[in-house]
Design a protein that fits this description.
five-stranded antiparallel β-sheet; NuiA-like; alpha+beta; single chain; two-stranded antiparallel sheet; 159 residues; 5 helices
Length: 159
């Protein structure tokens, strides 16, 4: 037998907006982070790897290619990464750098990681976790090659 509070929590959850927690396109107040610079050609291997790959969370979202101009030779720090993706407040951005094994504990995103390694000619690949509004986060799997930050990103809803 459930308590009154448990039953009320169940009813409140059942009455929530069904579109809550799904990714929305850029609209009023929504800031879309930049994943690809204008005028660049995303490597074919990366396009193929992201064409039907989804990040599994509360809102299974597709991976999209990342291809940004970057002057550094090593992966950027958190603040520099936030600036590269045009975060509205890069100095206050909730960015965390993760190892691949820490992010993909079951190896289910191996194709994305391998495509990123191929596109960056075997460079070090890391995951940048950017906290967004509420339970939304974005995972950016990237490496550096020839003045470019290359990889894939996906939105996740973590409840």
């Amino acid at each position: 037998m459930a308590s009154d509070e448990d039953y009320m929590a169940f009813l409140n959850k059942a009455n929530k907006d069904p579109s809550e927690g799904t990714a929305k396109t850029q609209g009023k107040g929504k800031i879309e982070l930049k994943a690809v610079d204008q005028g660049v050609k995303v490597p074919a291997a990366l396009k193929k790897a992201t064409s039907d790959a989804f990040y599994v969370s509360d809102a299974d979202e597709p991976f999209v290619p990342v291809y940004l101009k970057y002057d550094g030779k090593k992966l950027p720090d958190e603040a520099t990464f936030a600036k590269l993706v045009n975060h509205p407040s890069p100095d206050d951005a909730d960015v965390e750098i993760m190892d691949i094994g820490e992010w993909d504990t079951q190896g289910q995103y191996k194709e994305i990681v391998d495509a990123t390694r191929d596109a960056t000619k075997g460079s070090d690949v890391r995951v940048y976790r950017i906290g967004r509004e509420g339970s939304r986060v974005e995972y950016w799997v990237v490496g550096v090659e020839g003045g470019k930050l290359i990889g894939a990103k996906a939105l996740a809803i973590e409840s």
